[in-house]
Amino acid sequence: MSFHQQRVVITGASRDFGRTLAIRFAQKGAEVFLSARSLEASRRVANEIRELGHERVRAFACDLSDAASIRRFADELAQSTDRVDVLINNGARWLEGPDILSASDEDVIDTIASGATGTVLMVKRLLPLLLASDHPDIVNMISAAGLPAHYRSTAHDAFYAAKSAQAGFADILSRRLRPRGVRVIALYPPDFSNPDPLSPQWESTPRGSGDVLTAHSVAECVFFALGQPRDCFIKSFHFEQVPDVLTNQR
Q: How far apart are alpha carbons 132 and 108 in whole angstroms?
């Protein structure tokens, strides 16, 4: 589907799946607004997109663990656009380590703040711009780590806590914003491979029933949900995890 005339905000857009979504939305015609902790990082992806011939891209700095940074980002965004059609809550700090003692207090606080508090504040600050759209959507990239009884990621306990908080927020947000015309979509992928969308591996990576889930397939789920008529609220995507496969969920 085409996303021409749509304005899409993507947090955590400087690397991994955030960068993938930024490039794919731009390739589908969207005007994209990218944020990352450092302006240099988001500008780097914006420049990649421009080199592909897509000029409608803006880069911003936003630290999701810092409320003041989120406020500044929202203010700067409001000066650049009068609406947001799609907000992709992708940004969240990854923290490795199955031993709770392996991370510092500061790392634990930052991980939970960026993944949980940051998502809540981002929605709060951008909701006026979303409500200015005729077809507002919020997409929350959560993780299977946010599901009850999931244990197969090598993530730290704090990452699990952050993702569980995001899951609870997405659930109540969907119920409360639907009367205002805002669709809230949550994705709970297990660990998945993320080939560079600008490389041959994007198309050649196996996507069979016995293969590890790919970013290509996860992105297609996002586009599928957004492309549905407005009476179709796809609340969440849940995925089977290939047995005995453990890779880092980022």
A: 36
